[in-house]
Fold this sequence. Notes:
Elements: E1 3-12, E2 29-30, E3 33-34, H1 35-44, E4 48-55, H2 59-66, E5 71-74, H3 81-86, H4 89-92, E6 98-103, H5 111-121, E7 129-134, E8 144-147, E9 153-157, E10 172-180, H6 181-189, H7 205-211, E11 216-220, H8 223-226, H9 232-252, E12 255-257, E13 263-264, E14 270-271, E15 275-277, E16 281-283, E17 288-289, E18 294-295, E19 299-301, E20 305-306, E21 311-312, E22 316-318, E23 322-324, E24 329-332, E25 334-341, E26 346-349, E27 352-358, E28 363-364, E29 369-371, E30 381-383, E31 388-389, E32 394-396, E33 399-401, E34 406-407, E35 412-413, E36 422-423, H10 435-446
Parallel strand pairs: 1-4, 1-6, 4-5, 7-11, 12-15, 13-16, 14-17, 15-18, 16-19, 17-20, 18-21, 19-22, 20-23, 21-24, 22-25, 23-25, 24-26, 25-27, 26-28, 27-30, 28-31, 29-32, 30-33, 31-34, 32-35, 34-36
Antiparallel strand pairs: 2-3, 6-10, 7-10, 8-9
Bound molecules: uridine-diphosphate-N-acetylglucosamine and calcium ion (CA).
Uridine-diphosphate-N-acetylglucosamine binds next to strand 1, helix 3 and strand 10.
Amino acid sequence: xxxxxxxxxxxxxxxxxxxxxxxxxxxxxxxxxxxxxxxxxxxxxxxxxxxxxxxxxxxxxxxxxxxxxxxxxxxxxxxxxxxxxxxxxxxxxxxxxxxxxxxxxxxxxxxxxxxxxxxxxxxxxxxxxxxxxxxxxxxxxxxxxxxxxxxxxxxxxxxxxxxxxxxxxxxxxxxxxxxxxxxxxxxxxxxxxxxxxxxxxxxxxxxxxxxxxxxxxxxxxxxxxxxxxxxxxxxxxxxxxxxxxxxxxxxxxxxxxxxxxxxxxxxxxxxxxxxxxxxxxxxxxxxxxxxxxxxxxxxxxxxxxxxxxxxxxxxxxxxxxxxxxxxxxxxxxxxxxxxxxxxxxxxxxxxxxxxxxxxxxxxxxxxxxxxxxxxxxxxxxxxxxxxxxxxxxxxxxxxxxxxxxxxxxxxxxxxxxxxxxxxxxxxxxxxxxxxxxxxxxxxxxxxx
Length: 448
Ligand code: UD1
Ligand code: CA
Protein backbone atom coordinates (compact mmCIF):
# COMPACT_ATOMS: atom_id res chain seq x y z
CA UNK A 1 0.00 0.00 0.00
CA UNK A 2 1.43 3.40 -0.84
CA UNK A 3 1.65 6.21 1.65
CA UNK A 4 -0.22 9.13 0.12
CA UNK A 5 1.30 11.44 2.75
CA UNK A 6 4.83 10.92 1.50
CA UNK A 7 6.68 12.02 -1.64
CA UNK A 8 10.41 11.75 -2.32
CA UNK A 9 12.64 13.84 -4.53
CA UNK A 10 16.01 12.37 -5.46
CA UNK A 11 18.52 14.92 -6.73
CA UNK A 12 20.91 13.58 -9.33
CA UNK A 13 21.53 16.45 -11.73
CA UNK A 14 25.13 17.10 -10.73
CA UNK A 15 27.71 16.50 -13.45
CA UNK A 16 29.55 13.82 -11.52
CA UNK A 17 32.77 14.89 -13.25
CA UNK A 18 35.04 13.48 -10.53
CA UNK A 19 33.85 9.99 -11.39
CA UNK A 20 35.39 10.35 -14.89
CA UNK A 21 32.85 7.94 -16.36
CA UNK A 22 30.45 7.46 -19.25
CA UNK A 23 28.09 5.86 -16.76
CA UNK A 24 25.86 8.21 -14.76
CA UNK A 25 27.28 8.59 -11.27
CA UNK A 26 24.16 7.24 -9.52
CA UNK A 27 24.28 4.06 -11.61
CA UNK A 28 27.71 2.97 -10.39
CA UNK A 29 27.27 -0.26 -8.43
CA UNK A 30 27.67 -0.97 -4.74
CA UNK A 31 27.57 -4.66 -3.92
CA UNK A 32 26.70 -5.28 -7.57
CA UNK A 33 23.67 -2.97 -7.69
CA UNK A 34 23.43 0.67 -8.87
CA UNK A 35 23.66 3.03 -5.90
CA UNK A 36 20.39 4.68 -6.95
CA UNK A 37 18.62 1.34 -6.56
CA UNK A 38 19.98 0.87 -3.03
CA UNK A 39 18.28 4.12 -2.15
CA UNK A 40 15.06 3.25 -4.02
CA UNK A 41 14.86 -0.11 -2.25
CA UNK A 42 15.26 1.58 1.13
CA UNK A 43 12.46 3.97 0.19
CA UNK A 44 10.15 1.07 -0.64
CA UNK A 45 9.90 0.45 3.11
CA UNK A 46 8.24 3.86 3.49
CA UNK A 47 5.93 3.32 0.47
CA UNK A 48 5.98 6.88 -0.90
CA UNK A 49 3.12 7.61 -3.29
CA UNK A 50 5.30 9.82 -5.50
CA UNK A 51 8.96 9.49 -6.49
CA UNK A 52 10.65 12.15 -8.58
CA UNK A 53 14.26 11.94 -9.76
CA UNK A 54 15.90 15.17 -10.91
CA UNK A 55 18.57 14.60 -13.56
CA UNK A 56 20.73 16.70 -15.86
CA UNK A 57 22.88 14.94 -18.43
CA UNK A 58 22.44 11.17 -18.77
CA UNK A 59 18.65 11.22 -18.43
CA UNK A 60 18.26 8.23 -20.78
CA UNK A 61 20.57 6.04 -18.66
CA UNK A 62 18.66 6.82 -15.47
CA UNK A 63 15.31 6.39 -17.20
CA UNK A 64 16.33 3.00 -18.56
CA UNK A 65 17.52 1.88 -15.15
CA UNK A 66 14.46 2.92 -13.10
CA UNK A 67 11.74 2.22 -15.68
CA UNK A 68 8.35 3.23 -14.33
CA UNK A 69 9.49 3.18 -10.69
CA UNK A 70 9.81 6.99 -10.61
CA UNK A 71 9.09 10.14 -12.57
CA UNK A 72 12.13 11.77 -14.11
CA UNK A 73 12.47 15.55 -14.34
CA UNK A 74 15.28 17.31 -16.18
CA UNK A 75 17.03 20.26 -14.54
CA UNK A 76 18.91 22.03 -17.31
CA UNK A 77 20.90 24.15 -16.64
CA UNK A 78 21.68 23.45 -12.96
CA UNK A 79 21.43 26.51 -10.75
CA UNK A 80 21.91 24.74 -7.42
CA UNK A 81 20.18 22.35 -5.02
CA UNK A 82 17.29 24.76 -4.34
CA UNK A 83 16.68 25.18 -8.06
CA UNK A 84 16.79 21.37 -8.44
CA UNK A 85 13.81 21.03 -6.08
CA UNK A 86 12.02 23.99 -7.73
CA UNK A 87 11.91 22.09 -11.05
CA UNK A 88 9.62 19.44 -9.50
CA UNK A 89 6.79 21.98 -9.32
CA UNK A 90 4.69 20.29 -12.04
CA UNK A 91 4.90 16.98 -10.18
CA UNK A 92 4.47 18.18 -6.61
CA UNK A 93 2.82 21.61 -6.35
CA UNK A 94 -0.54 19.95 -5.52
CA UNK A 95 1.06 17.73 -2.85
CA UNK A 96 0.53 18.57 0.80
CA UNK A 97 2.13 15.62 2.59
CA UNK A 98 5.78 15.23 3.62
CA UNK A 99 8.50 15.59 1.01
CA UNK A 100 11.85 13.89 1.59
CA UNK A 101 14.75 15.42 -0.32
CA UNK A 102 17.40 12.79 -1.04
CA UNK A 103 20.47 12.44 -3.23
CA UNK A 104 21.20 9.71 -5.76
CA UNK A 105 24.82 9.69 -4.63
CA UNK A 106 23.98 9.24 -0.92
CA UNK A 107 22.70 5.67 -1.08
CA UNK A 108 23.35 4.15 2.33
CA UNK A 109 20.66 5.75 4.44
CA UNK A 110 18.72 3.44 6.71
CA UNK A 111 14.96 3.25 6.88
CA UNK A 112 15.20 4.04 10.61
CA UNK A 113 17.01 7.32 9.93
CA UNK A 114 14.40 8.43 7.39
CA UNK A 115 11.55 7.33 9.64
CA UNK A 116 13.09 9.29 12.50
CA UNK A 117 13.13 12.45 10.35
CA UNK A 118 9.44 11.99 9.60
CA UNK A 119 8.73 11.38 13.29
CA UNK A 120 10.53 14.62 14.19
CA UNK A 121 8.50 16.44 11.53
CA UNK A 122 5.31 15.31 13.20
CA UNK A 123 6.69 15.68 16.74
CA UNK A 124 6.87 18.68 19.07
CA UNK A 125 6.06 21.94 17.28
CA UNK A 126 5.54 20.26 13.87
CA UNK A 127 8.66 21.78 12.28
CA UNK A 128 8.13 22.53 8.57
CA UNK A 129 11.76 21.63 7.85
CA UNK A 130 13.76 18.76 9.34
CA UNK A 131 17.41 18.59 8.32
CA UNK A 132 19.54 15.49 8.68
CA UNK A 133 22.78 16.51 10.38
CA UNK A 134 25.96 14.56 11.13
CA UNK A 135 29.25 15.15 12.91
CA UNK A 136 32.05 14.16 10.54
CA UNK A 137 35.62 13.58 11.69
CA UNK A 138 36.64 16.17 9.07
CA UNK A 139 34.10 18.96 8.42
CA UNK A 140 35.64 19.61 4.97
CA UNK A 141 33.44 22.00 2.97
CA UNK A 142 30.11 20.86 4.37
CA UNK A 143 27.36 23.34 5.20
CA UNK A 144 27.17 23.99 8.97
CA UNK A 145 24.02 23.75 11.06
CA UNK A 146 23.46 26.77 13.29
CA UNK A 147 21.29 25.76 16.26
CA UNK A 148 20.07 27.63 19.35
CA UNK A 149 20.23 26.53 23.00
CA UNK A 150 17.04 24.46 22.59
CA UNK A 151 18.61 22.60 19.66
CA UNK A 152 16.25 24.32 17.20
CA UNK A 153 17.74 24.91 13.79
CA UNK A 154 18.23 28.60 12.96
CA UNK A 155 20.05 28.43 9.64
CA UNK A 156 22.39 26.45 7.43
CA UNK A 157 25.53 28.29 6.42
CA UNK A 158 27.48 27.03 3.43
CA UNK A 159 31.21 26.59 4.06
CA UNK A 160 32.05 29.13 1.34
CA UNK A 161 29.82 31.73 3.01
CA UNK A 162 30.67 30.89 6.63
CA UNK A 163 32.60 33.08 9.05
CA UNK A 164 35.66 31.70 10.82
CA UNK A 165 33.55 31.11 13.94
CA UNK A 166 30.81 29.32 11.99
CA UNK A 167 33.42 27.07 10.41
CA UNK A 168 34.21 25.79 13.92
CA UNK A 169 30.73 24.23 14.15
CA UNK A 170 31.03 20.43 14.08
CA UNK A 171 27.40 19.68 13.20
CA UNK A 172 27.15 19.52 9.40
CA UNK A 173 24.44 19.36 6.79
CA UNK A 174 24.03 16.01 5.04
CA UNK A 175 21.77 17.76 2.51
CA UNK A 176 18.88 15.41 3.32
CA UNK A 177 15.67 17.11 4.42
CA UNK A 178 12.06 16.40 5.25
CA UNK A 179 9.76 19.28 4.31
CA UNK A 180 6.11 20.08 4.76
CA UNK A 181 4.86 19.76 1.17
CA UNK A 182 2.05 22.23 1.83
CA UNK A 183 4.55 25.09 2.16
CA UNK A 184 7.60 23.74 0.30
CA UNK A 185 7.17 25.76 -2.90
CA UNK A 186 6.35 28.93 -0.92
CA UNK A 187 9.66 28.51 0.89
CA UNK A 188 11.51 27.75 -2.36
CA UNK A 189 10.03 30.90 -3.93
CA UNK A 190 11.98 32.88 -1.34
CA UNK A 191 15.41 31.65 -2.53
CA UNK A 192 17.93 33.88 -4.27
CA UNK A 193 21.45 33.39 -5.59
CA UNK A 194 23.19 36.17 -3.67
CA UNK A 195 25.92 33.97 -2.22
CA UNK A 196 29.50 32.86 -2.75
CA UNK A 197 28.58 30.19 -5.31
CA UNK A 198 25.94 32.25 -7.15
CA UNK A 199 23.51 29.32 -6.76
CA UNK A 200 20.02 28.82 -5.39
CA UNK A 201 20.83 27.00 -2.17
CA UNK A 202 18.24 24.55 -0.85
CA UNK A 203 19.79 25.14 2.55
CA UNK A 204 18.37 28.69 2.60
CA UNK A 205 14.84 27.29 3.12
CA UNK A 206 15.73 27.02 6.82
CA UNK A 207 16.24 30.76 7.32
CA UNK A 208 13.24 31.48 5.09
CA UNK A 209 10.99 29.14 7.10
CA UNK A 210 12.18 30.71 10.38
CA UNK A 211 11.41 34.18 9.05
CA UNK A 212 7.89 33.02 8.19
CA UNK A 213 7.45 31.68 11.72
CA UNK A 214 7.83 27.95 10.97
CA UNK A 215 9.85 25.66 13.17
CA UNK A 216 13.00 23.93 11.87
CA UNK A 217 14.62 20.94 13.53
CA UNK A 218 17.66 18.66 13.25
CA UNK A 219 17.80 14.89 13.25
CA UNK A 220 21.26 13.29 13.47
CA UNK A 221 22.76 10.31 11.59
CA UNK A 222 26.17 8.64 11.53
CA UNK A 223 28.77 9.80 9.05
CA UNK A 224 28.94 6.45 7.23
CA UNK A 225 25.21 6.56 6.54
CA UNK A 226 25.23 9.97 4.89
CA UNK A 227 28.48 9.70 2.98
CA UNK A 228 28.22 10.98 -0.56
CA UNK A 229 29.93 9.25 -3.46
CA UNK A 230 31.63 11.66 -5.83
CA UNK A 231 34.73 9.80 -6.97
CA UNK A 232 36.03 6.29 -7.50
CA UNK A 233 37.84 6.43 -4.18
CA UNK A 234 34.66 7.44 -2.35
CA UNK A 235 32.91 4.62 -4.23
CA UNK A 236 35.54 2.22 -2.87
CA UNK A 237 35.05 3.61 0.66
CA UNK A 238 31.30 3.11 0.35
CA UNK A 239 31.83 -0.41 -0.97
CA UNK A 240 34.00 -1.14 2.08
CA UNK A 241 31.23 0.09 4.39
CA UNK A 242 28.66 -1.97 2.48
CA UNK A 243 30.82 -5.12 2.56
CA UNK A 244 31.55 -4.63 6.26
CA UNK A 245 27.82 -4.56 6.96
CA UNK A 246 27.16 -7.65 4.81
CA UNK A 247 29.93 -9.65 6.52
CA UNK A 248 28.63 -8.70 9.95
CA UNK A 249 25.07 -9.60 8.96
CA UNK A 250 26.08 -13.07 7.76
CA UNK A 251 28.21 -13.77 10.83
CA UNK A 252 25.31 -12.67 13.04
CA UNK A 253 23.09 -15.11 11.13
CA UNK A 254 25.38 -18.09 11.76
CA UNK A 255 27.90 -18.08 8.91
CA UNK A 256 31.60 -18.65 9.69
CA UNK A 257 33.98 -16.40 7.77
CA UNK A 258 37.60 -17.35 8.42
CA UNK A 259 38.86 -14.04 7.07
CA UNK A 260 35.83 -11.74 6.70
CA UNK A 261 37.68 -8.92 4.96
CA UNK A 262 38.63 -11.17 2.04
CA UNK A 263 35.08 -12.29 1.22
CA UNK A 264 32.92 -10.07 -1.03
CA UNK A 265 29.16 -10.34 -1.11
CA UNK A 266 26.55 -9.05 -3.51
CA UNK A 267 23.51 -7.05 -2.36
CA UNK A 268 21.31 -10.11 -2.91
CA UNK A 269 23.53 -12.95 -1.63
CA UNK A 270 21.58 -15.50 0.43
CA UNK A 271 23.46 -17.80 2.83
CA UNK A 272 22.08 -20.38 5.24
CA UNK A 273 23.28 -21.25 8.73
CA UNK A 274 26.38 -23.28 9.52
CA UNK A 275 28.01 -22.40 6.24
CA UNK A 276 31.80 -22.00 6.44
CA UNK A 277 33.56 -19.74 3.97
CA UNK A 278 37.35 -19.82 3.69
CA UNK A 279 39.35 -16.73 2.60
CA UNK A 280 39.19 -15.01 -0.79
CA UNK A 281 35.74 -15.81 -2.10
CA UNK A 282 33.72 -13.50 -4.38
CA UNK A 283 29.93 -13.57 -4.66
CA UNK A 284 28.52 -11.90 -7.78
CA UNK A 285 24.78 -11.24 -8.04
CA UNK A 286 22.17 -13.98 -7.70
CA UNK A 287 23.87 -16.55 -5.47
CA UNK A 288 22.08 -18.72 -2.91
CA UNK A 289 23.95 -21.00 -0.52
CA UNK A 290 21.91 -23.38 1.63
CA UNK A 291 22.86 -24.53 5.12
CA UNK A 292 25.85 -26.72 6.07
CA UNK A 293 27.83 -25.89 2.92
CA UNK A 294 31.62 -25.54 3.00
CA UNK A 295 33.18 -23.10 0.55
CA UNK A 296 36.94 -23.43 0.35
CA UNK A 297 39.23 -20.57 -0.59
CA UNK A 298 39.51 -18.65 -3.87
CA UNK A 299 36.10 -19.30 -5.40
CA UNK A 300 34.11 -17.05 -7.76
CA UNK A 301 30.33 -17.35 -7.98
CA UNK A 302 27.54 -15.63 -9.88
CA UNK A 303 23.93 -16.64 -10.46
CA UNK A 304 24.52 -20.02 -8.79
CA UNK A 305 22.75 -22.17 -6.19
CA UNK A 306 24.67 -24.39 -3.79
CA UNK A 307 22.45 -26.81 -1.90
CA UNK A 308 22.56 -28.25 1.60
CA UNK A 309 25.78 -29.88 2.70
CA UNK A 310 27.67 -29.44 -0.57
CA UNK A 311 31.43 -28.71 -0.66
CA UNK A 312 32.82 -26.29 -3.22
CA UNK A 313 36.41 -25.28 -3.99
CA UNK A 314 39.13 -24.37 -3.50
CA UNK A 315 39.41 -22.44 -6.77
CA UNK A 316 35.98 -23.27 -8.17
CA UNK A 317 34.02 -21.04 -10.54
CA UNK A 318 30.24 -21.27 -10.60
CA UNK A 319 28.59 -19.28 -13.38
CA UNK A 320 24.92 -18.42 -13.94
CA UNK A 321 22.44 -21.30 -13.51
CA UNK A 322 24.98 -23.62 -11.93
CA UNK A 323 22.95 -25.68 -9.45
CA UNK A 324 25.06 -27.78 -7.11
CA UNK A 325 22.92 -30.43 -5.41
CA UNK A 326 22.80 -31.46 -1.77
CA UNK A 327 26.00 -33.11 -0.60
CA UNK A 328 27.63 -32.74 -4.00
CA UNK A 329 31.34 -32.01 -4.25
CA UNK A 330 32.91 -29.51 -6.62
CA UNK A 331 36.69 -29.47 -6.41
CA UNK A 332 39.59 -27.34 -7.56
CA UNK A 333 39.75 -25.68 -10.98
CA UNK A 334 36.23 -26.71 -11.90
CA UNK A 335 34.00 -24.36 -13.92
CA UNK A 336 30.25 -24.98 -14.02
CA UNK A 337 27.74 -23.08 -16.15
CA UNK A 338 23.99 -23.66 -16.64
CA UNK A 339 24.19 -27.18 -15.28
CA UNK A 340 22.48 -29.19 -12.59
CA UNK A 341 24.76 -31.33 -10.49
CA UNK A 342 22.40 -33.65 -8.66
CA UNK A 343 22.64 -34.85 -5.11
CA UNK A 344 25.94 -36.38 -4.06
CA UNK A 345 27.57 -36.13 -7.49
CA UNK A 346 31.29 -35.31 -7.62
CA UNK A 347 33.25 -33.13 -10.00
CA UNK A 348 36.50 -33.07 -8.11
CA UNK A 349 39.21 -31.70 -10.37
CA UNK A 350 39.96 -29.61 -13.46
CA UNK A 351 36.68 -29.82 -15.37
CA UNK A 352 34.36 -27.71 -17.50
CA UNK A 353 30.70 -28.63 -17.12
CA UNK A 354 28.38 -26.46 -19.22
CA UNK A 355 24.76 -27.05 -20.35
CA UNK A 356 24.66 -30.39 -18.56
CA UNK A 357 22.74 -32.53 -16.14
CA UNK A 358 24.90 -34.68 -13.92
CA UNK A 359 22.81 -37.38 -12.23
CA UNK A 360 22.71 -38.32 -8.57
CA UNK A 361 25.95 -39.79 -7.31
CA UNK A 362 27.72 -39.62 -10.66
CA UNK A 363 31.51 -39.25 -10.59
CA UNK A 364 33.14 -36.96 -13.12
CA UNK A 365 36.86 -37.69 -13.49
CA UNK A 366 39.63 -35.13 -13.57
CA UNK A 367 39.84 -33.12 -16.75
CA UNK A 368 36.39 -33.98 -18.09
CA UNK A 369 35.06 -31.43 -20.57
CA UNK A 370 31.50 -31.09 -21.83
CA UNK A 371 31.98 -29.81 -25.38
CA UNK A 372 28.75 -27.79 -25.36
CA UNK A 373 29.48 -25.33 -28.15
CA UNK A 374 30.15 -25.98 -31.82
CA UNK A 375 30.89 -22.38 -32.67
CA UNK A 376 27.22 -21.69 -33.45
CA UNK A 377 24.93 -23.42 -30.96
CA UNK A 378 24.97 -24.77 -27.44
CA UNK A 379 23.87 -28.36 -26.78
CA UNK A 380 23.01 -30.48 -23.75
CA UNK A 381 25.02 -33.25 -22.08
CA UNK A 382 23.01 -35.65 -19.90
CA UNK A 383 24.88 -37.91 -17.52
CA UNK A 384 22.75 -40.53 -15.78
CA UNK A 385 22.73 -41.28 -12.05
CA UNK A 386 25.73 -43.23 -10.82
CA UNK A 387 27.65 -42.91 -14.09
CA UNK A 388 31.47 -42.85 -13.91
CA UNK A 389 33.28 -40.63 -16.39
CA UNK A 390 36.99 -41.46 -16.65
CA UNK A 391 39.63 -38.75 -16.54
CA UNK A 392 40.37 -36.55 -19.52
CA UNK A 393 37.14 -37.31 -21.31
CA UNK A 394 35.50 -35.07 -23.88
CA UNK A 395 31.70 -35.40 -24.02
CA UNK A 396 30.62 -33.89 -27.34
CA UNK A 397 27.09 -32.51 -26.92
CA UNK A 398 24.34 -33.26 -27.59
CA UNK A 399 25.08 -36.55 -25.90
CA UNK A 400 23.63 -38.83 -23.22
CA UNK A 401 25.49 -41.16 -20.87
CA UNK A 402 23.17 -43.79 -19.39
CA UNK A 403 22.75 -44.42 -15.69
CA UNK A 404 25.58 -46.43 -14.17
CA UNK A 405 27.63 -46.40 -17.40
CA UNK A 406 31.43 -46.20 -17.28
CA UNK A 407 33.39 -44.11 -19.78
CA UNK A 408 37.05 -45.08 -20.08
CA UNK A 409 39.65 -42.40 -19.45
CA UNK A 410 40.73 -40.35 -22.42
CA UNK A 411 37.59 -41.01 -24.45
CA UNK A 412 35.91 -38.65 -26.87
CA UNK A 413 32.22 -39.54 -26.67
CA UNK A 414 30.02 -38.43 -29.56
CA UNK A 415 27.14 -40.94 -29.41
CA UNK A 416 24.71 -42.05 -26.73
CA UNK A 417 26.03 -44.58 -24.18
CA UNK A 418 23.54 -47.13 -22.80
CA UNK A 419 22.74 -47.77 -19.17
CA UNK A 420 25.44 -49.78 -17.35
CA UNK A 421 27.63 -50.05 -20.50
CA UNK A 422 31.39 -49.53 -20.71
CA UNK A 423 32.51 -47.26 -23.52
CA UNK A 424 36.11 -46.64 -24.55
CA UNK A 425 36.92 -44.58 -27.64
CA UNK A 426 40.71 -44.30 -27.42
CA UNK A 427 43.12 -46.41 -29.53
CA UNK A 428 43.97 -49.90 -28.22
CA UNK A 429 47.17 -50.15 -26.18
CA UNK A 430 50.08 -51.77 -28.11
CA UNK A 431 53.28 -53.01 -26.46
CA UNK A 432 56.61 -53.82 -28.18
CA UNK A 433 58.92 -55.61 -25.74
CA UNK A 434 62.48 -54.18 -25.51
CA UNK A 435 61.81 -51.56 -28.18
CA UNK A 436 62.92 -48.62 -26.03
CA UNK A 437 66.30 -50.15 -25.08
CA UNK A 438 67.05 -51.03 -28.72
CA UNK A 439 66.09 -47.52 -29.82
CA UNK A 440 68.46 -45.93 -27.31
CA UNK A 441 71.40 -48.10 -28.36
CA UNK A 442 70.88 -47.22 -32.01
CA UNK A 443 70.78 -43.54 -31.26
CA UNK A 444 73.98 -43.63 -29.15
CA UNK A 445 75.83 -45.33 -32.03
CA UNK A 446 74.58 -42.82 -34.60
CA UNK A 447 75.43 -39.76 -32.50
CA UNK A 448 79.01 -39.53 -33.91
C1 UD1 B 1 25.37 20.49 -0.43
C2 UD1 B 1 24.78 21.38 0.66
C3 UD1 B 1 25.72 21.38 1.87
C4 UD1 B 1 25.92 19.97 2.37
C5 UD1 B 1 26.43 19.09 1.24
C6 UD1 B 1 26.47 17.65 1.68
C7 UD1 B 1 23.57 23.10 -0.58
C8 UD1 B 1 23.57 24.50 -1.03
N1 UD1 B 1 24.64 22.72 0.11
O1 UD1 B 1 26.59 21.11 -0.82
O2 UD1 B 1 25.17 22.17 2.91
O3 UD1 B 1 26.82 19.95 3.45
O4 UD1 B 1 25.56 19.17 0.09
O5 UD1 B 1 27.13 16.90 0.68
O6 UD1 B 1 22.60 22.41 -0.80
N2 UD1 B 1 22.40 18.92 -7.50
C9 UD1 B 1 21.40 19.00 -8.45
N3 UD1 B 1 21.24 20.17 -9.13
C10 UD1 B 1 22.01 21.27 -8.90
C11 UD1 B 1 23.02 21.16 -7.91
C12 UD1 B 1 23.18 19.98 -7.23
O7 UD1 B 1 20.70 18.04 -8.72
O8 UD1 B 1 21.78 22.28 -9.55
C13 UD1 B 1 22.58 17.65 -6.77
C14 UD1 B 1 23.91 17.01 -7.11
O9 UD1 B 1 23.73 15.98 -8.07
C15 UD1 B 1 24.36 16.42 -5.79
C16 UD1 B 1 23.63 17.21 -4.73
O10 UD1 B 1 22.62 17.93 -5.40
O11 UD1 B 1 23.96 15.09 -5.65
C17 UD1 B 1 24.52 18.13 -3.91
O12 UD1 B 1 25.04 19.09 -4.78
P1 UD1 B 1 26.48 19.71 -4.57
O13 UD1 B 1 26.69 20.74 -5.58
O14 UD1 B 1 27.49 18.62 -4.47
O15 UD1 B 1 26.30 20.41 -3.15
P2 UD1 B 1 27.43 20.74 -2.14
O16 UD1 B 1 28.12 21.95 -2.57
O17 UD1 B 1 28.24 19.55 -1.85
CA1 CA C 1 28.57 17.37 -2.74
